[in-house]
Amino acid sequence: MPVPRTAWRIDRAGSLSRLRRVDEPLPDPAPGEARLRTEAIGLNFADILACLGLYSATPKESFVPGLECAGTVEAVGPGASLSVGDRVCVLTRFGGYANRLNFDTRYSIRVPAGWSAAEAAAWPVQGITAWYGLLDRARVARGECVLVQSAAGGVGLQALNILSTVGAKVIASVGDERKRDFLCARHGLPPGAVIVRDVRRFGAQLDGAMDAIGADGLDVVFDAVLGPFFRPAFARLRPEGRFVLFGAADFMPPGSRPNYLSLLWRYLRRPRLDPLAMISANQAFIGFNLIWLWEQVERMPAAIEGLQRYAGARRPHVGERVPFAEAPRAMQLLQSGRTLGKVVLEV
Ligand SMILES: NC(=O)c1ccc[n+]([C@@H]2O[C@H](COP(=O)([O-])OP(=O)(O)OC[C@H]3O[C@@H](n4cnc5c(N)ncnc54)[C@H](OP(=O)(O)O)[C@@H]3O)[C@@H](O)[C@H]2O)c1
């Protein structure tokens, strides 16, 4: 029997102002699925890019944004590996902004004991992103020096957790002083290792931070900003260094719809690499997109194990809790680039 639900839906990507709240029926869970009574929804930068029509995986038809949420199992379909009453966090390929949803149980993780729903909803996408980029792809080892861009954001804080477990040396970059103070207080990073990025002297800032932590180059750069900060960081990669690029926040438009001329200008000025130079420098460039990993369902158990092992020791930091009814405001907060940790919608 279908049950009623409320969701945030957008009929056609292109503007955040098209997002609307709808009441609609939800069918019974299909084989291998369960139904979640959602308690919290984790926001991701990709949600905004999808609604703006700037994310390659965005559905062409009407869709409900949202890549992760947490709550309690309310019903199960045939063959589902969960029971009614289980508390889980769920990875969804869109569809998360809803107070009820059906999900494939292979993409769910039990909520760690003692964690709130908001903390659980803040965990899987950003934790797996950091694990996949830093450990599965770039193979960061103890003692290596890693630059984490946007280190006080959702993925950034997960990256710091993982790097502290691995025993890497960290240089963190952020957009403002408040974030730097937060990182020094919460993560115990020495002030000299945290850079408040300044486009005019980012290279010198990196040199100062490397001096402060006793590094003579960067072994790994973990970057989802791109823009003018790419070149100075790339130029400081050591031999055998790995540059991991997984986003381009510098492209994020400030308003509710994209300014395509400004985007085109940024696109034309995007950094270019010389592959031949990378041979003699023994360097690697790694790009990745989690949606691709999501589609390799046979790899989910390893990704979930990586998440639990490396990003499960510390609860995610929920910087903003916003009521479900105010989803557009929560998206604007994340879009502003000024949030700390995770932005979560509470149902
Ligand atoms: N490839 C993948 O599969 C994948 C998966 C997850 C996330 N990502 C990417 O990882 C990045 C972090 O994601 P998140 O969800 O954890 O977000 P977040 O880091 O919590 O927020 C994004 C951060 O980007 C920085 N930023 C730089 N330029 C910006 C601009 N023009 N407008 C707004 N923010 C700007 C801001 O931090 P500072 O100013 O402190 O730098 C902001 O806090 C995003 O770029 C996202 O697209 C990629």
Structure in words:
- The chain is α/β, with parallel strands linked by helices and 347 residues long.
- The protein has two domains: 3-123 and 316-346, Quinone Oxidoreductase, Chain A, domain 1 (Alpha-Beta Complex), CATH 3.90.180; 126-292, 3-Layer(aba) Sandwich (Rossmann fold).
- Helix content is 32%, strand content 26%.
- It is built from twelve helices and 15 strands.
- The strands form three sheets. Strands 3, 4, 5, 6, 7, 14 and 15 form a seven-stranded mixed beta sheet that branches. Strands 10-9-8-11-12-13 form a six-stranded parallel beta sheet, with helices on both faces.
- It is globular.
Please sum up the structure shown.
This protein is of the alpha/beta class and 347 residues long. It has twelve helices and 15 strands. 32% of the residues lie in helices and 26% in strands.
